[in-house]
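Sharing a chain and its predicted structure for anyone who wants a worked example. Both blocks are below, sequence first, tokens second.
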Amino acid sequence: MFYSLVYNFLVMITYSIILILLLLVAMAMFSELFLYGLVSTLIFIILLPFYYIVRAISGKFLYGWKEKLGFFKAPDLGSKVIMYHGVSVGEVIALENLIKKTKEVFPDYKIVVTTGTKTGQEIAIKKYSNIVDFITYFPFDIPISVHAFFAQVKPSVVLIAETELWPIFASFCKLKNIKLYTINGRMSDSTYRLYRMCRYFFKKILVKYTKILTQSEFDRTKLISIGAPEDKTFVMKNLKFDVKRSDEKVEIGQGSYRIIIAGSTHKPEEEMIIKIFKEKLQKYSDIKLLLVPRHTNRIPQILPLLDNSQINYGFRSKNDTFAEKDIIVLDTMGELGKMYSICHFAFIGGSFNNTGGHNPLEATVYSKPTITGPSIHNFRDIYWLLSRSKAGKIVKTPEELSNYMETLLSDNEFYEQACKDCETIFNDQQGALDVVIEELKQVL
């Protein structure tokens, strides 16, 4: 282990020396941002070895650093290339339907997907390996890395999800006449305050973009105030809302029961949900629970919780129905999406641990309210929109979850408004995918 660390450290020092030797050549070729490129490269060279040591000590290595430096081998992609970038899990997931549609509409183009994080890379490989032509990391924003990247990947157009502003990358796109877009653009209040302070600098970057397409008028106003050209900045709505209802019919003995779905749950959420459901069942005899663990291999761990609850339960794989059971465990694959069509409301799991939440829109598309725990970083923008109305609720504790479930069960007027809010928000946000496809048709 020690020798491996030393070897990797020495390799990085060698690469740093090479970067220093090549720096002046690169700066001479791309003088427009000479000062930024010089400073950013020197800072990068100085800090990278120390950053590597810190990461190694903590057990978190620099995943993808060679690729980010530009040391990778791409297949022969040709000159007709569309590139999508999503920095991490949430952005990569948001691009799914758009990438599939792009492949369908532009079959003659190769598609490249880049990410900025290890988890984003893993999700991209899992989702897109059989769809796109190449998956790699986005380059470090220093001239050598960006130049090496474009030496192998020659996109006609680059579409960056949400709002990442990379000065060197944007300048290379401008110099090489590559169309550069921000899509699904958004800006949090904290990011906006920082960018606002540096708006003179960011203005010089934003003018290099072909267009900036935002999730909302609110985001558009923010970006214009930090320097985005008003005539290039438009609202496209939110890609994540391009979710379709399933046409499949569901029959699980639902009848007139009010079904609560606990979807994509992780430990310790099953224990929490079963306990709360047992309390509610004593008061509301018409409720049922569909329990859907995110990973079916965890079901043996959940069975003791169900046995101890003394609630009669069954399994979807055994064709059990709510006519006989109060809890059914969905232990089959690929059925959760359509199940949301029959629920009264849904708890979305992966939100009471560090998972970062799962997609609430699978329920919202059926006009069903959702509740989630505090860990929502994979879908923060979605929950922000939903929680501005009664469509979605973020709770911090199991007690808050129980109280909000009580409101949805006991207050019919409140519940009906929550369902209407789901429908309103969903309708307001749809159409983003078509906006991007039409834009690509104009430039390709």
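Comments welcome. DSSP finds 19 helices and 14 strands in the chain.
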